[in-house]
Amino acid sequence: MSSEVELSRLLNELSIQFNRYFSIIILLFGTIGNLLNCLVLSQPSLRLNPCAYCFLLSSIANLISICFGLTTRILSGWHLDFTNTNTSLCKIRVYIMLVSRTIAFWLIALATFDRWCSSCHHYQRRKLSSLRNAQRVSILFVVCCSLIYSQVLYCYEANIFDAPLQCYGKDVRCRLITDIIYASITILCPILTMFIFGLMTISNVRQISSIILLQRQTIPNRTENQIYIQQERWRKLDRYLLHVLFRQIILLVLLTIPQVIEKLYTTLTMSEKKLLLHISMDHFLYNFVLLLSYAASGMPFYIYTLSGGRIFRNTLRNLLQSMFRR
Questions:
Q1: How far is CA 22 from the centre of its chain?
Q2: pLDDT of 123-160, one tens digit each?
Q3: For all residues of the chain together, what is the average pLDDT?
Q4: Burial letters for 298-324: b for 16+ Cβ neighbours within 10 Å, e otherwise?
């Protein structure tokens, strides 16, 4: 019994330390990354591109999600989280965090759809890729996400002691509704959309590359060496698109799906009687996967920078050079 109590205390202490220090690391990297994203994507060379516009708004939404979510996690490490005791602050914080995270993920999915439209061979589909359409759909996403999570303003309350967090759903029905909406609307549907349209975009790029290659082969002055160089260039572009797409999808799955599973497990087993060690373990795992989900909101800048995007890196380098010259 004493060993279980000691292990339970250790897990509780680890949860506190994670909230104190791991949250600070994610907040710093996420805030810096999203701010740099906003600066780079708002440059004249990129801001009129509908895909870059979606990434820009997504970075702003991620920044809001991180600031509203992680600041309270850091404060909870020192028992200073007022959302645990103030119901109004609890509702507002959770609502803004969930809405902004949902908007951010769907805007990345919209960017993937825009890339598919711009790569289509049919003119009518290519016309869908425009800044005006991206702005209209973005407004639609904001309105829909705000309405979908309006139930949070009723369901969430402070001073809840039978949940992983004191600011949580007040009963099983509320928790189950929120968990299902979060799992389906916020996580699974955007990731599935990114995956489907990402593959379709790569397929379009391959088809267009083949058509252009056949056309250029008919030109008499076109040498075999030039054709081979062109083929290699398209293969590199193909590999780059695959690399960025699947790295982003894999990281989103790894960083967000554990929280979905843990939230559903916590809700479905809340009526069961658990030992002290079991409760401490559940709380530790919940806090850990919760922080992982915030890491997903802070990673886009590092994916764009490290995955070989020459345009993005060049724009970032020029921006930093111009800032230091001043």
A1: 18
A2: 888 889 899 999 999 999 999 999 999 999 999 999 99
A3: 85
A4: bbbbbbbbebebeebeebbeeeeeeee
- Would you say how long the chain is, in residues? 326
**Alpha-helical regions (H) of 80-223:** 87-119, 123-127, 131-148, 152-155, 172-181, 189-217
Q: Which residues touch 7 (CB under 8 Å, ≥6 apart)?
A: 277, 280
pLDDT digits (tens, 9 = 90+) for 199-216: 888 888 777 655 555 555
Distance from C-alpha of 169 to C-alpha of 172, rounded to nearest angstrom: 8
Residue type at position 94 = V
pTM value is 0.89
Residue with tokens 């990297």: 29
To which residue do tokens 């497990």 refer?
Answer: 265
Nearest to 193 by CA among 278, 130, 114: 114
**Nearest alpha carbon to residue 199 among 307, 128, 110, 115:** 115
Q: Judging by beta carbons within 10 Å of its beta carbon (0-12, 13-18, 19+), is residue 190 exposed, middle or buried?
A: buried
Query: In angstroms, rounded to a whole number, what is the distance separating the alpha carbons of residues 73 and 167?
Result: 11
E strand or H helix at 182, and its extent? none
